[in-house]
Amino acid sequence: MKQNNLVILSLPFQRLIRSLLSPSLVSFFSRRADIIIVSPFAGISGFNRLHSSLQIQHLRAPSERKLAPVVKWLHRVSTVLRIRGYWFRERKTLRYYWANRHFQARKDGHLKKIPAMLRPGLDLLSWAGGWCGAWRCLEFFYGRKAFQMSGLERIAQQYRRVILVQAASWGFQDAALGWLGRKHRWFSVLFPYSMDQLFCNGHLLNDFHLVCAQGKHEIRWARQFHQIPSARILSLGSFYLRELSLRKKSFHIKLGPISPQYLLYAGIAPQYFPRDLELAAVNYLAEVVLYHLGIGWQLSYRPVCVSSREISILSRSLKYRDRVRLQFPGPSSIGLRKYRDSDVQREVNALIQGLRQVRIMVTSLTTSLSLEAAQMGIPSVAYFPSSPELDIRKTRLLLDERNRPVGLESVPVATSFSDLGNMVLRLARRSRERDRIARATRELWYAAKDNFAQVLDRAIFAPNGS
Fold first, then answer.
1. How many whole angstroms separate alpha carbon 47 and alpha carbon 17?
2. pTM above 0.85, yes or no
């Protein structure tokens, strides 16, 4: 037992590998504690080989599928209370989420309205869930049945200090570990993996003793939405962006003028932005904007596709296939439920290489890739077109009063083809404006602390830290 400390890392989906299992964070924990990773991937040889030299233990996560029907139903009601109740309480700020509470997004991007007979009940639960204790009261009755992890509890009892580290505030696994953490009074730490965790994902799943905010917004959201005292908030930035920055430097990549220069269109999952709108924007950029940019510019398109069939349909839909270079994000960027063998470090290297020649990035609505691009000195333009599908879901409510994305106010917004074309052409001519946008984005979401390990060590492993 390393100094009688145990760290439990919750890793419910593959995308978290690049942040929670980043070399700097794993190295930090392994010096002071034994490590257990709780995930649905325990037993998969490719996953277990990650950091195998550190003798990390793996435990399989509890599964919602194995619950009795009544327990499963109670958990789902509790989830509605936790998430929709939070939306109700913060409905003046989270206008987009509250406006879409009666819709479900299908995989093709089109909306399905929740049956009329269910809406009053959902709204009643939302009203009740405005009190953050409502979902926990319900959890009190089914938690012992639903969240059993006797093997983890037996191991944890052998240690003087147990630190539970979570990155997501949604899903059954983190609900189970949050319940166990509160039951046993484990020291709980949140490293948010995306911009959503402290903003729109509901009341927090745990009474976190420490929240490691990625940037200025998360510090404010932790205080404003979750009433977390300043003494329990650390501004450490994103560990993944830290690794990206270190890797970029180790490559000795010169980010000066390189030919050709690329305009990158970064897509998002079709259920949030219809694929036909995305393809129309890519075709417009290939046909019109590339012509005006002139020789020395090319176009890359990075869609979110998870199947070969999707890729085939998408390729046939590109109007100017010879003008578009396709890039696809790896499992460490979008992987959720299923595990796919991949080399995370190689994927990060490939991402850096893929962004090396990019000068401007356009995104469907907003995406976390804007943070990675900004780390590479690349500005983003968010594309918020008007269409019946997006108007129904009131997508413009994701923008603030200055027509900037909430959380990414540094990013300019284009609302039409002409608007998009003019912005891209202006940024192509103005390197200082490109630098200003990228720098402002980094300042919002990245805290470069050379002594982050010492700060984190005092906060987590200090004798009086509890």
1. 10
2. yes
